[in-house]
Amino acid sequence: MPEKLAIKPAINAPPESTRQTILLTALKLFHDEGIDAVKLLRISAESGSANTAAVHYYFKNKDGLIQAILDFLDANIWQPAYQELEEVLVGEPDIREVLYVGLWPSNRIAFDFSWGADAQSVMFHIATGANSEYRHALDTITAPQQSLFRGAVRALVPELSDDVFEARWNFVLTGATFGLHASTRLLRLEEGWTLASEKKYVDYMLDYVVGGLTGPG
User: Fold this and answer.
1) Which structural domain range is residue 76 located in?
2) What is the pTM of this model?
3) Concatenated DSSP letters of the chain
């Protein structure tokens, strides 16, 4: 089983392109202020582009920008997460290891990427927002990993009835993803809160989820 909350090694990436700089700037602004509140002109300006219409040039409109962000998250988070979970399931992992790996896209990306916390927030905004097209687009990229994850966890608790498992799985989805996002976002505002504090907090959460899933049905 991997060490608790081990950080993935850094990858030597090429210098950011103008397009990616704009995309990451949009992620940060959407994280800070919400998707609806941020204008495209401001994203262009804060990305350092000399062209005030840079977002329009690369992404056409906000819908195109959101789709590009989701494509970026799919390539950098959800597809690697699916592959990592597949590799782990080749062995005989226990439920904690499956949860550790399966929850990486929702929880641990904040430790692995400089833009990880921004990505967590934007996915939260989309998943809980009113725009059904954005929600459907997010569901499309998360569904393969989430389906594999759910099936792997279900196989490790065969003693639970379908109804009990469904209730506990819904807790994992809400408490260990959306709930953790909301609580850590608040905790990051506290004086003295550090990355090490957050890692420990997430580690405790993982123990809590294991207990919730494996308790008597």
Assistant:
1) 63-214
2) 0.82
3) -PPTTPPPPPP-PPPPPHHHHHHHHHHHHHHHH-TTT--HHHHHHHTT-S-TTHHHHHHSSHHHHHHHHHHHHIIIIIHHHHHHHHHHHTS---HHHHHHHHTTTTTTHHHH-TTHHHHHHHHHHHHHSS-HHHHHHHHHHHHHHHHHHHHHHHHH-TTS-HHHHHHHHHHHHIIIIIIHHHHHHHHTTSTT--HHHHHHHHHHHHHHHHHHHHS--
